[in-house]
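FW: tagging you since you asked about this chain on Friday. Here's the raw sequence from the shared folder, copied in full. Didn't touch anything.
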Amino acid sequence: TTTFDVVLNNNIFSGNRGYGASIRATSYELATTGLINNEFFSNGRSGAYIGHRDSVLSMIYASGDSAFANHGSGISTIQYDNWVSLLNLSGLSSHHNADSGIHIQQDAEFLSAAVVGMPQGVSGLLSGLTGLPEELAGFFQPSGGVSASDNGSSGILAEISSDSLALGAFFDVAANRNEDCGVQALVDSEEGVAIALAGSSQNLSDLAQLGTDVLGALDVNLPISIPGNGQFQANDNSGCGLVLVTSAEDFALAGVLGAETSGNENDGTLLFSDSDNIAAALAARVVASDNGVNGLDLSVFGDDAAVGLLADVNASNNGENGIDATLTGDIAAFLT
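HL: got it, structure written out here
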């Protein structure tokens, strides 16, 4: 087995004319790069750049890092032409960079999965699974919220694609006062499933408790616990607060559970889902007020079925509509 394994731990990268740190791996069976408790600041290009290409399994993870005042992005990751691409950026901050705070470019033939702000309860649940390959155990350990504010472009810009399954998850993020959008994720699967989710661990915890209570009422003892009290904010950005765009052949889902997206110059929350078969978009426990355009813009296009779900949303005092919803499909349903 050919392997590439590099971990940067407790370093400072500052004042370089190029990148603070540039790490590249090409054509390995297993390529792993970790960033732990580093500082990247005042560099001429991105603070940290990690590129993995043409490998069977690519894994990038980071936790405890700080990236600020760089002339490019704070943290930039590229995973292209791999069989599986995995990314976990949690418990870190990236602010006051000239470009995006975090820029993710991810592609894989089978599976692309990017997690920003892994909730601690989910991290503990996944890392404790029996039978988990040793190579994956460390990947699930980083957890905690992510701060990406006051950047010259988006706070977080993610472009995630896979032939079969593409997943993007953004939890406990603070992405405020950026010159473009707070969080912008484009998730695409040409032949399969694309899912983009955002929200807070506080609401995941409540949802898990509700599931436990419902199962208990049915005399099913299956405790589900996801501890967490984090929040999701994407406020006061020059573009949109939160943008989730999904497209897929079989199934596409864009969903937000627990978020504040207010005071943005464009839409507060924009959800777009498009599929040749079934497409869905859901927004629950969202505050999207005082935005320049719509509080919530929800567009769902599914050739077979288009489904929209709205629950416990406050979209008030926006420049245009509180919610602007469009659903198109042989079967179109909007539930609220």
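FW: Residues 201-217 form the longest helix (17 residues).
HL: agreed, and The longest strand covers residues 75-90.
FW: great, closing this out.
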